[in-house]
Amino acid sequence: MSFSPDQDARAILLPAFDTFDFMDVMALFLEKGGCSVLLGESRSEYVARSMSAERLAGETADVFRAPIARLKAICPQLIVAVDQELGGIQRLQGLVPNLPSLDEAHALSDEALAERCRVTAMAARELGVSMFLAPIADVIDGQNPWLRGRTMGTYPEAVARLVSAFVTGVQSAGITAVTKHFPGFNDLEQDPALVDVSLHTPLDRLLHNALPFKAAIAAGTRAIMTGPAPVAAIDRENAASTSPAVMTMLRDAFGFKGLIVSDDLDAPATMRGRSLLETAIAAVNAGADLLLVGGGPHLEALCDGLAAAAQSGQISPDRLAEAATRVRRNAVGL
Question: What is this enzyme's class at the first EC digit (predicted)?
Answer without folding.
Answer: hydrolase
